[in-house]
Structure formats: structure tokens, C-alpha cells
From TrEMBL:
Keywords: Membrane, Transmembrane, Transmembrane helix, Transport. It comes from the Bacteria. The chain crosses the membrane at residues 32-54, 60-82, 103-127, 154-174, 186-203, 215-234, 255-279, 299-323, 351-370, 376-396, 408-427, 433-451. One of its GO terms (molecular function) is amino acid transmembrane transporter activity. This is Amino acid/polyamine/organocation transporter (APC superfamily). It is found in: Membrane. Its main location: membrane. It is a multi-pass membrane protein. One of its GO terms (cellular component) is membrane.
Amino acid sequence: MRASELLRTKAINADHVAHGSGLRRILGPLDLTLLGIGAVIGAGIFVLTGVAAATKAGPAIVLSYVVAGFACAFAAMAYAELAAAIGGCGSAYGYTYAGMGELIAWVIGWDLILEYSVAVSAVAIGWSGYANTALEAVGLGLPPELLRGPLEGGLVNLPAFVIVLVLGLLLAVGVRESARVNAAMVFIKLLAITVFVVIASSHVEPANWTPFMPFGWGGMMGGAALVIFAYLGFDAVSTAAEEARNPQRDLPIGILASLAVCTLLYILVAGLLTGVAHYSTLNVSDPVAEVILRLGYPWGAGLVAAGAIAGLTTVMLAMYYGLTRVFLAIARDGLLPPLFARIDRRTQTPLTVILATGFAMAFIAGFTPIGAVAKLVNLGTLAAFFLVSVGVLVLRRRHPDLPRPFRIPFSPLFPLLGAFFCLILAVSLPWQTWAAFGVWLAIGLVIYFVYSRHHSALAVNPESLGNDSLRSQAS
């Protein structure tokens, strides 16, 4: 085994040449922006803002969101450049394969599988709690045995199990239908946020903003480190490259517009929340709904709860979608069995991948205490962000003439800043998270050296997807 085999790279436009338009190109810039908003804004805006204000930053949580959004913007611009220039549904996996080689691409692809699947399973458990609260409000609450898995003293987390399967069926029907449901859910949660803004804006007490930075500069930065995870998810937009009508133009719009909208909403909600209530009272499980109740608007609190449920639903849908597209891209390259590379002729969706991953995630959500490893989502996402930021510099050096419809400005400064922020945040995660990630990585390396390396399309037919044969077409 030679090092060159592990670092062999795929042609920039290999996916376009080899796979054509197997997926249906129907998503426009608005669809992609809504996909990004759906992935980013979940229950975090209704919960994390209050908790971070109470325990980390105080009213300066507004600045925490500015810093976090600024940090994420570097990674978002890197994604925008590579998504427009390279495309493909593999996201960071595909970009790394073209720039850094097969082994590194496999590692990040294996990491993305973990990131998206754990995210869907963990969010499904959170969704279950919100959904059961809504059922209890109408006298239809489920018994405890159907809200916990057997390892937690119950039988199955039934709502979590069911919602994953329902979303799987939706994705199996087609991307157009999934986009419509996502748009409807995004509308509900944006409506809930709008109602909060309208109500809260007339009850602001400026005295609540004093002192503005009670925990000092360190507290504000600690708040930024906490709330930056409320931004994670916009990278799912890049997995829609093969279903975008004009990916070179629309993917950068979807990535950057969704991040900008979410940043503005986070800042607005944070400012009003700390203006209506003293920051010290916001360390509760549902601070936004609690504040609305204190102001005497029970119907508004109900709508906020509905917005939280809708928010969690869109997060699951976007992450599930991203998982299936990354899985598809890896299987196309031969690193996973070809069974997962099939596209259903009728729905033009990767039906096998959707069903297989759906049943796996439903089982995890329904029968295991997934919360213990939920922080792996953070580490996996930061690893992807780091490699994409570095990948911009690598590809600019290796392929300087590659057409780039969008270029990240102030290179190499901005890509380096993106990599730096991701590295700092990743190092700040607990060692238990790194240990669990190491176990998952070890499993992935075993699979790669036992199966993937030998079945890779570049190993079976080196000229099929290699840069030597297609580089001239890419530029």
C-alpha cells in the first residue's frame, strides 16, 4: 500500500461527468435559503438564548451572537466558494476528496454520517418531549413507558421513533414535497418569532439591560462559544447541489442568506428577551414562552411552543436530507456498497439510503439514550468546517484556474480565520466527546482499510474519476 493510494484525488467535476442529473433539479434560491433556516433555527432560539444570557453573558448575549455569527460567516463563505465551484451532493466530503485525497475524504464523510445521524436522533428525542407536552394540553399525554427507551426504564420513545419514520417517508416521496413541508414549518416558527417580537417590543424595560456585561468580556465570549452551536446546520444547504436549478448561483445565496437571516433573528430575540425580563430569571427550559406567559399572553406562549416543535421538525428534516445525500455521494465513489448509490426511477430520490438510515435513526431515537453523545454533533460539524476552510486554500493552490462563481474575499486571511475559530472551539469541547469521536473514527478506519480502499472507484478504474483524466474538463 502506497501513500499515493490513500491521497488519490477525484476530478473537480467527476460527479457531473459520472452521474449527470440522477437527482431532480427543482430547488431555487428561496428553497435553499429556507432549507438553511430550517436547519439552523430550532429550539435553540427559544431555549439557548435565555440560558446563555442567564449563565454566561447577561444582556451582552446580543454581542455573543454577533461574535458567533461572525465566526460562522468565515466557514459559510468557504462552503459557498466550494459548493459553487465543485458542487456534488457530498458537501465537505466531496470537496475534501477533490482537494486533499481519498483517506481524508473518507474520514470527513464518516464524520458527517455521524454528525447528521446523531443530530436527527437526538433532536427527535427533544421533539418527543415537546410533542407530548402538546398532547397533555389536550388530555392525550402518553404514559412514561412510551416516552423512554428500555435503558431508561421504559419500553420505547414512541414519538421519537415515529417522527423519524414519518420524515423518512416524506423524503422518500420526493424533494419537492419535502421542500414544501419544510417551507410550511419554517413559516410557523418565523410566525412564532414574529409574535414574540411584536409582544416583547412594547414591554421592554431599558433598566434590564443594566449592567450590560455583568460577567465581563470573558462572559460575553463564553456566551459566544455556547451559542455558536445554535448556528450549526447551514452546511446542509451544500448537500443540495445536485437538486438546485442553478447551483453555481443559488448555493452561495442559500448558504449566506440563511446565515444572515438567522443571525439577525438571534440578535433581535436576544435583545428583546433580556429587555423584557432580567437576565438572571431566564435560566429555564422555555425562557421565551415563560416570558410571554409572565406578560399575560398565554396564547402567545402556545404559539411559541408550536414554533419550537416546528423548529425541531425542520432541523430533523434538513439533517436527515443532508445525511442521505452524503451517504449517496460516498456510495457513488465505491467507498460504501453500491446498493446505497441507487436512485429510484419514479421519485428520483435515493430510496434505499433514506429507508436504511431512517430505520437506524428511528431505532436509536426510540430505544437508546442518545443524549450522552449528542455533543459529537458539535465536534463533527467543527471538523467539517475546519477542513472546508483549509480546502479553499488547497484548491486555490492546486487549481488556480478553476472557475469560481463565488470567491471568499481576503484570502488567505478569511479561510485561515475560519479554520482558527473552528479549531479553538473544537479544543474547548470535553475530552469525553473527543474519546467517543476517536472510537467512531477507529471504526471508520477499519471499514476503509478492509472494504472501501479496495472498492473505491479510483482503485477499480483509476481513469474513471481521477484528476488526470478530467482536469482539463474541470477548468
